[in-house]
Structure formats: C-alpha cells, structure tokens
Amino acid sequence: MNNSFPFKQKEFSGWSTLAGAMLAYGCICGDVTYAYGVFLPSMNEAFEWPRSALSGPYTLFLITGGLLGPLVGWTIARFGARKNVILGNIFAAFGLLGMSQVREIWQVYLFFGVMGGLGLAFSEFLTMTTVINHWFIRKRSLALGLLFASGGVGGFLLPPLIIVFISGLGWRWAWVCLSLVHLLLAVVLAGILIRNTPESEGQLPDGLQEDVPSDNLQSSAEGRVYSTAVDWSVRGAMRTPALWLLLVLFSAVLFVHNMMTTHQVAYLRDLHYSSMVSATALGLMLGMSILGRLISGILGMRFDGRSLAAVFLGCMALGIVSLLNAGAIFFVYLYSVLTGIGFGGMIVLLPNVMGAYFGRKHFSRIVGWTTPVVTLVSAVSPILAGFFYDRTGNYTIPFATASVLLFVSIVLAFLARPPGLPGAIR
Description:
Elements: H1 14-33, H2 36-47, H3 51-67, H4 69-79, H5 81-99, H6 105-123, H7 125-135, H8 140-169, H9 171-193, E1 231-232, H10 234-238, H11 241-270, H12 275-299, H13 305-324, H14 329-358, H15 363-378, H16 380-392, H17 396-415, E2 424-425
Antiparallel strand pairs: 1-2
Helix pairs in contact: 1-5, 1-6, 1-7, 1-8, 1-9, 2-3, 2-11, 3-6, 3-15, 3-16, 4-5, 4-15, 5-6, 5-7, 5-9, 6-7, 7-8, 7-15, 8-9, 8-12, 8-14, 11-12, 11-14, 11-15, 11-16, 11-17, 12-14, 13-14, 13-17
C-alpha cells in the first residue's frame, strides 16, 4: 500500500508555528493567569474586600476556562486552532482593559472571571497542545517543553514588572499596560505565525519528507517511551483507567498550583516579607518552572512518563512543606525552586503522555471532553484557601492539604499504565 503523503513538501512551518504558540501562551500566562495574584493585595487594600471575595473571580476564570472544553475542542476541529487563538486573546485583552475600571466586585467577575476565562478557554492549554500534537510526533515532548517554558518565561518576567507598574503608575494603569502588551503580542504577532496543521500546509509532522511511510509516524517511540500505534476514539479513551488516572494527576497538580499562584504573594506579605520579595518569589517559582519544563521535554523523549511524574510530584510536595516553614527566606526560595521545577515538569509531561497514549487524530476532542472534570476540581482551591484564611487567619490548613495530596499522587502516577488496544480505532 502506498502511504506517501499526497502533497508537495514545503519548508517546514512547525517551528514558526511553535514560536507563535509560545508567544501567545507566554502572554496568556504572564499577562492574565499569573498576574491576578500580584494585583490581589493592592485591590484588597483599595476596596477592603475580603480575600475570599477576591478569590471568587479567579475561580470563575478557571471554571470558565475549563467548562468550555467540549465547545473549544469542537471549534478547533471545525475551524482550526488559529482562529481560537485570535478570538480568545481578544477577549482576554479587553478583559484586562476592563479591570482598570472596576468599582464593584461584580465587575471583577465580569472582566476577569468571564472575559479572561474566555481567553483561557479558547487560547490556552487545549488549543496550544492541539497545535503541538498536530505538528510534532517524534519531537512532541521537546516541542511541548519549549511551549510550556514560554509560560514560565511569562510568569518569571511579569510579576516583578507588574509591581514596578503598580508602584509607578498605580494598579489601574498597570492593567491598561498589560492589555496593550497582550493585544500586540498574543493577538497580532501570534496570529501571523500560527498555522493549524501540517496537512493544511502540504507538509508532514516533524518536517518529514513525503516518502516516509505515514505508519511510522504513529510508532515513533525512542528507547523505553511508549507511543500508541493507533488513534483512540473519544468513547474508547474515556473507558480506560489510564485516562482517568491522568486526569486525577492533572487535577491535583492544578489544584495546588492555582492555590499557590493566587495566595502565595499574600501569604508571604502576612509573614512580613516585602512586596518585592513576595512577587520575586512567585516569579522565581515560575522561572524555575522553565527549567522543569525543558527537563521534562528532553527526558520525556527517553524515559517512562510515570517515573518522571513521581519525581516531579515529589519536588512539588517538598516545596509546599518548605513554604510552610518559611520563617527564613532560604525556605521561601527553596519552595520556589522545588515547586517550580516540579510543576514545570508535570505541565509538560501530562499532555505528552496523553498524546502518546491516545494518538493525534482525536486529541482535541478527548482532552476537550475531559477538561471540565479537571477544572471543577482544581478551581476550588483558590476560594477554598481564601475561606480557610478568613476563618483561621492563616493558610496552614490549605497548604498542608496540598502537600498531602501531592504525596498521594506519587503513588497514583505509577498506576497510570498505557491502555490496551481494545476500543481504539484506526
């Protein structure tokens, strides 16, 4: 049977598409997701709203971003990922602009929770990982590592810069600056660079030539790394224990991460660290996640994902324990290093394993239908931490719970074995 690709091979567009995806992903992380926690203390002081009330918009932001997963998966399959990137980031940019004008708490829910959430849904995780899964198979782990490293870059650079904006211009003008940066980089430049699929450009994944048999693309594992030889259907994938174990791990990681990015700066301020030290610790955590993402991207091409997951989850757990003992600044930065590396490794590893377990063709729909499960679990943590803070005056209970959850997840990681072939379709 002749499996050669029917179109004429052109210069590979995967790397420029990856560059555009990195630009958009870095902006949505730095300008939106990681920015909110930096603004929280200033807005709390300006309006004297309780922290649980200010945590609500972030929870709505996460819920909006996740519950729309099935719709986002369908729009990607129907219209292509590029239109999702442009539309979602337009919503996000105008949401940031609206945050500069808030006077009532419901406006924060509207501009950040709803409009920011639409940006998160249509232009972040699901859309970006689908783009990478389309363009790369053999080098998928490396490409995902670079993609998610851009999110770490955004998180590393933006929090200290936002503090400078707030100190010099006030928190309202700081939101305006973020809006303009986001519109230019995530909408205009990223929209120019991103292409939907290699097939739409007359190319093959990984830049392979047309005389390479396409069957080889589905079985391109290196060393001990598993890679499925078939594309699973949505129904078939959802019947496997492996998918649900991966979702449990994803939920645990995001549960902890969402809690920390929302409340870490406020927690350190409560311990009488300066605003710059508090923001820098957040930036360092996100900066170290760059290293974790790159390590995961490289090692993910050669080592079993379950073993790597155990190591990264252990780093996150030990980091939270360090933060609970942050009476000395050494433990603050130890937390930032360990948690950053652990989270960075996991955020690359999980979508890479899902692609390796379930294939390329139905990736967006599989992840899209399961995203609401992850979202509903992980979105609880910011408001839960705010609730316990308002009741107890500290973060001991939610942070300790987070560390225990991560230690339990280490065991679950080893149980997430590759699924058997029954239920898959070619």
